[in-house]
Design goal:
Radius of gyration: 22 Å
Number of strands: 0
Low-confidence stretches: none
Largest sheet: none
Structural class: mainly alpha
Number of helices: 8
Distance between the termini: 51 Å
Length: 262
């Protein structure tokens, strides 16, 4: 019994120490990024290239998922619709569901897999092949060359992609609703406006910005601290996607609690 207790204590202690060490390494990475912001001429062109890669490379998959999400939302609304509810409520249901929840969350989860995995794999490969060490030996700051451009590109482009996704999803839901329900354009537009609040759009952008920060920082941290060769790169990539996805869901809950409850 005593040996089992000791093993549990050892396991718990090791987990606590590893967690504290991870927090320290993450804080150190963020601090290095803050210091590297002064090197604008280094990270600015790289950030522009990264933003273009994110925007162009992710636009198709984001819009495809948004169109299907909007159409499915409208079709399910048509399935659950009863004659006791005014028909224009479908417009409100589709618009609010997409803008407040499905648009930011679906885009965030998809980009956590696409962008987060790529960033973690790239940085992890550079770490295990000692490219980052070589950069440091030359007196160059890895944060301004590798981390800041990726983080800023995510913070800039992911909210833009979410806005595009919201528009396409609402349009797709509008079209699907007209095919499955006896609803006119006027009815749908009236329902979309009647419960709309200007803060809803800002809330969607705030969520997108928060998700972008989670994806970028977690993925860069996991890749930047990779160890153990090719196996470590695989673990870092998987860990970046899983951790980013869980953080997105947690942030979704926290932001809803903080910003939507009165």
């Amino acid at each position: 019994m005593s040996s089992a207790i000791k093993r549990v204590q050892l396991w718990v202690g090791r987990g606590v120490l590893d967690s504290l060490a991870s927090v320290g390494r993450f804080a150190n990475m963020v601090a290095d990024m803050g210091r590297g912001l002064t090197e604008v001429r280094i990270w600015m062109p790289r950030a522009i290239d990264e933003a273009a890669n994110i925007g162009v490379g992710s636009l198709f998959i984001v819009l495809l998922i948004a169109s299907f999400a909007g159409a499915v939302t409208a079709l399910q609304a048509g399935y659950q619709f009863t004659g006791n509810i005014p028909i224009y409520v479908v417009g409100s249901l589709v618009t609010e569901t997409i803008v407040l929840e499905l648009g930011p969350v679906l885009v965030g989860l998809i980009l956590a897999g696409r962008i987060g995995a790529r960033y973690a794999a790239e940085l992890g490969t550079m770490r295990v092949t000692e490219q980052i060490d070589a950069l440091e030996s030359l007196g160059r700051a890895p944060s301004s060359h590798l981390l800041i451009p990726r983080v800023l590109a995510c913070l800039l482009m992911i909210p833009v992609l979410v806005i595009f996704a919201n528009v396409v999803a609402v349009a797709s839901g509008w079209f699907a609703a007209k095919q499955s329900l006896p609803i006119t354009d006027q009815d749908f537009a009236y329902g979309a406006r009647i419960f709309w609040r200007p803060f809803d759009a800002w809330y969607s952008v705030i969520k997108a910005f928060s998700f972008a920060a989670a994806i970028a920082l977690v993925s860069c941290y996991r890749g930047f601290t990779t160890r153990q060769g090719a196996e470590g790169v695989g673990k870092s990539t998987t860990g970046a996607v899983v951790t980013s996805s869980v953080l997105i869901l947690l942030l979704d809950l926290l932001l809803a609690k903080l910003l939507l409850t009165h």
